[in-house]
């Protein structure tokens, strides 16, 4: 049975929605989470959690479990084949988590769901939010079965095509880049398992990222991305863009997808009693693995702000969340944009680009600055 009321309704049970709900439950608030999917994600999708995000997730008690399940990598590199153009190490970062954590999204969601359930919360599935109405002191969310839930606040964590954002009258302007991307999770022999690499090959961009189960994620910018990539396709990506040493060989394709990049940030993260978080508030290039990290940091900050508003009646903290989180999103989108554009310069100038990067990387400040940007610690 659908509850008739709660202090907060969270629409969307991806990592961001689950983290907001867990944070609210930890503060002792009643929360209802609804999601239109019959079950959670079972694919890897977002697979990186950075240091600053791990620090913030300590607040809801999930960091230790995530680290236990994930793969700690201390090195990142921009490469051209076997040549390291820009080596980046996380080893000396001023954090308790001097690494990037590789963990598939379905596991992150599972850890967050288990924590929410430990705290007495649940997810109602499959229910889609179809409308909302606001008054001075409450907001009502209508579900696709006709039920209505009354709350003091609603969190839109329902993705880039957010229904709640649209119902609240918030806009998310931006651009769709004319770039096609292919994502393939593979099992392969001969690939290095100790770093994430961003290959700036003449043939095009290729990300190679090890995953905890021994598989690898390949992400490539391509002219035409197949809907169902096979092993031969993945092998061609490695042959033309990846390392030559050890002659890497794809043995199995586990999962594949294709997508285009949208660079959009909501013009405001708040409309009265509706707050945006995650992809409902911002979306951008996957370069640097920033998307889910930014959303999870939204979630922790927003849960704290909502608790303050609920217990103290002080709504200025919600405006501060909206302003500060949007400012961080603009910074992250700009970083991802620069990396994506740099990776996709015209083919003829790519060798020159690589030569310049190799020279710039000799400066320690270049390597350290990029490590801090990726880890979410630019000001430390």
Features:
about 375 residues, 10 helices, 20 strands, alpha+beta, 8-stranded mixed beta sheet, 6-stranded mixed beta sheet, single chain
Short description:
With 380 residues, this protein is of the alpha+beta class. The chain is built from ten helices and 20 strands.
Chain-wise SSE layout:
Blueprint: E1 8-11, H1 15-26, E2 31-34, E3 48-49, H2 51-57, H3 63-69, E4 71-73, E5 75-80, E6 83-89, E7 100-102, H4 105-118, E8 123-124, E9 129-134, E10 139-143, E11 148-151, E12 153-156, H5 163-167, E13 174-189, E14 195-201, E15 204-210, E16 216-222, H6 231-241, E17 249-265, E18 270-271, E19 274-276, E20 282-283, H7 291-312, H8 316-343, H9 350-360, H10 364-375
Parallel strand pairs: 1-2, 1-12, 2-8, 5-14, 12-19
Antiparallel strand pairs: 3-7, 4-7, 5-6, 9-10, 10-11, 13-16, 13-17, 14-15, 15-16, 17-20, 18-19
Helix pairs in contact: 1-4, 1-7, 2-7, 7-8
Provide a descriptive summary of the structure in words.
With 380 residues, this protein is an alpha+beta fold. It contains 10 helices and 20 strands. 34% of the residues lie in helices and 29% in strands. A hairpin with a 2-residue loop joins strand 14 and strand 15 (204-210). Helix 1 (15-26) runs parallel beside helix 4 (105-118), helix 2 runs parallel beside helix 7 and helix 7 runs antiparallel to helix 8. The longest helix is centred in the C-terminal third of the chain and has 28 residues, at 316-343. It starts with 7 loop residues before the first strand and ends in a 5-residue tail after the last helix. 48% of the residues are buried. The model has no long low-confidence stretch (mean pLDDT 93).
């Amino acid at each position: 049975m659908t509850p008739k009321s709660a202090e907060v309704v969270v629409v969307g049970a991806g990592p961001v929605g689950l983290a907001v709900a867990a944070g609210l439950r930890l503060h002792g608030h009643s929360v209802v989470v609804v999601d239109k999917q019959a079950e959670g994600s079972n694919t890897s999708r977002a697979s990186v959690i950075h240091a600053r995000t791990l620090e913030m997730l300590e607040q809801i008690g999930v960091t230790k479990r995530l680290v236990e399940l994930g793969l700690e990598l201390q090195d990142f590199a921009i490469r051209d084949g076997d040549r390291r153009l820009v080596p980046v190490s996380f080893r000396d970062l001023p954090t308790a988590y001097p690494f990037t954590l590789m963990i598939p999204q379905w596991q992150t969601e599972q850890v967050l769901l288990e924590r929410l359930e430990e705290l007495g919360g649940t997810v109602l599935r499959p229910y889609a939010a179809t409308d909302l109405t606001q008054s001075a002191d409450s907001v009502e969310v209508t579900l696709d079965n006709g039920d209505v839930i009354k709350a003091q606040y609603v969190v839109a964590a329902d993705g880039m095509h957010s229904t709640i954002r649209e119902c609240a009258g918030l806009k998310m302007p931006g651009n769709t880049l004319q770039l096609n991307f292919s994502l393939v999770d593979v099992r392969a022999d001969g690939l290095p398992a100790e770093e994430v690499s961003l290959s700036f090959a003449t043939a095009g961009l290729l990300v190679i990222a090890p995953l905890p189960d021994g598989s690898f994620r390949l992400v490539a910018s391509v002219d035409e991305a197949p809907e169902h990539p096979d092993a031969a396709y993945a092998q061609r990506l490695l042959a033309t863009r990846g390392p030559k040493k050890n002659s890497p060989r794809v043995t199995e394709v586990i999962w594949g997808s294709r997508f285009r990049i949208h660079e959009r940030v909501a013009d405001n993260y708040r409309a009265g009693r509706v707050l945006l978080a995650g992809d409902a508030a911002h979306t951008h290039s996957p370069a640097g693995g920033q998307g889910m990290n930014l959303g999870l940091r939204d979630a922790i900050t927003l849960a704290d702000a909502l608790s303050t508003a609920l217990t103290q009646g002080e709504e200025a903290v919600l405006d501060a969340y909206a302003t500060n989180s949007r400012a961080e999103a603009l910074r992250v989108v700009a970083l991802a944009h620069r990396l994506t554009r740099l990776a996709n310069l015209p083919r003829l100038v790519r060798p020159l680009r690589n030569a310049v990067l190799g020279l710039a990387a000799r400066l320690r400040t270049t390597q350290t600055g990029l490590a801090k940007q990726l880890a979410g610690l630019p000001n430390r």
